[in-house]
Amino acid sequence: MAAAGVTARAGPGRTRPEGTTRHGTARQAREEQPLTTTRRPVRPSRPARAAALVGRLRPALYALVVALVLADLGAEVADLGDGRGLSGRVLLAAAGLALAAEALRAYLTRAVHRGPEPAAVEVAPPVTGRWSALNSPADKVPSHGVRAYGQAYAIDVVREPEPPREPRPAFGWWPPVRRNRDFPAFGEPVLAVADATVVRVRDGRRDHLTRSSYPALLPFFVEASFRDLAGFGALVGNHLVLDLGDGTYALYAHLKRGSVTVREGERVRTGQVVARVGNTGNSTEPHLHFQLMDAADPCTARGVPFAWRGVGVPRNEETFTV
Predict the structure, then answer these.
(1) 210-246 pLDDT per residue, tens
(2) Which pairs count as long-range contacts for 141-144, CB under 8 Å and 24+ apart, including other chains?
(3) Is the distance from CB of 236 to CB of 282 less than 8 angstroms?
(4) DSSP character string of 131-144
(5) Residues with Cβ < 8 Å from 261, sequence gap 6 or more?
(6) Residue 289 and residue 123: Cα distance in Å, rounded?
(7) 82-89 own/partner pairs: CB under 8 Å, 24+ apart
(8) Quick check: 207 and 257 in contact, CB under 8 A?
């Protein structure tokens, strides 16, 4: 974070004006020069399509490995060690195939993201009120540790109560889990960041209890491993993708079950409520995951840098008001 009077980075290649503090409001923050809002539509490359295909095959490959291991264990338990059990070669071959798929996917993902950094696109903020940023691309890229699923420049935001209300529950030892309504972000409106067309809606996953505590970390990471194997939908939970035009798409993730108010093919206007913040998918507490990308399918997309109009790109733990 930058103290008042110090220029702070607001995103890849962008800065915020001097005098803007970490608690600066949207009205106080102004961009020094306009950001590009025009991009050519990009057809997914062959490596991108291949990486997406391998990613979709991963669950089946791992299911095959697990099934073979269980079958072999079943044969041992039944004392069928007379040649009717599976051979070690079969198990090794299945495991090797799964590992090869992982290596191929990693290689293809790196190939997809080679090349110059895309130009930043300015859009309206997806929320209103007082929020804090987490996992921000203003601090590192890729912001979430990986470039897969178009999330190189993704950001997470959590709602902060207006004083003098109690702050949102802190990460700690007790209680291990909480109800979502204990967090001010839960149920907050999510807004369209531009005039756009809805191209993808997923709204059926339930909101789970929070995992915002030390005792809940281990089960959370176990769950995350299974979600990763299950694919993109299990990671992002309920989500929405908007086509902003000119080859730019906005993804909103971890939305509240049943809260999406738009349908695929529908046109939306800037600032229109399209959903509400939830706690679905790979999420420890109610928050909004937002990203721009260059394709409608996150499995083939590259991340695109963004800046929120009047805010820029808040840094990690920076509080901003829209």
Answers:
(1) 887 788 778 777 877 777 776 778 889 999 999 999 9
(2) 141/12, 142/303
(3) yes
(4) EEEES-TTT-SSTT
(5) 273, 274, 275
(6) 15
(7) none
(8) yes
Place of tokens 């149920």: 187
223 — phi, psi (to 5°)?
A: -60, -40
Q: For tokens 């928050």, what's the residue?
A: 287
Cα four-point dihedral sign 11, 17, 20, 24: negative
The answer to whether 200 touches 249, Cβ cutoff 8 Å, is no
Place of tokens 């800065």: 15
The structural domains of the chain, with segments of one domain joined by +, span 9-39+120-321, 46-112
- Domain 9-39+120-321 superfamily per CATH: Glucose Permease (Domain IIA) (2.70.70.10)
The answer to whether 289 and 105 are in contact (CB under 8 A) is: no
Give the whole-angstrom CA distance, residue 307 versus residue 121: 6
Task: Quote the Cα angle for 124-24-172, to 5°.
Answer: 95
Those residues whose C-beta lies under 8 Å from the C-beta of residue 194, and which sit 6 or more positions away, are 123, 124, 242, 244, 245, 250, 270
Three-state secondary structure string covering 76-131? HHCCCCCCCCCCHHHHHHHHHHHHHHHHHHHHHHHHHCCCCCCCCEEECCCCCCEE
pTM over 0.85: no
Amino acid at site 287: H
For 249-290, the pLDDT digits (tens) are 999 999 999 999 999 999 999 999 999 999 999 898 999 999
Please list the residues that pair with 132 across neighbouring strands: 158, 319
- Nearest C-alpha neighbor of 112 from the set 166, 42, 171: 42
- To the nearest 10°, the Cα dihedral for 307, 259, 211, 152? -30
Among 48, 111, 37, 57, smallest CA distance to 307 is for: 37
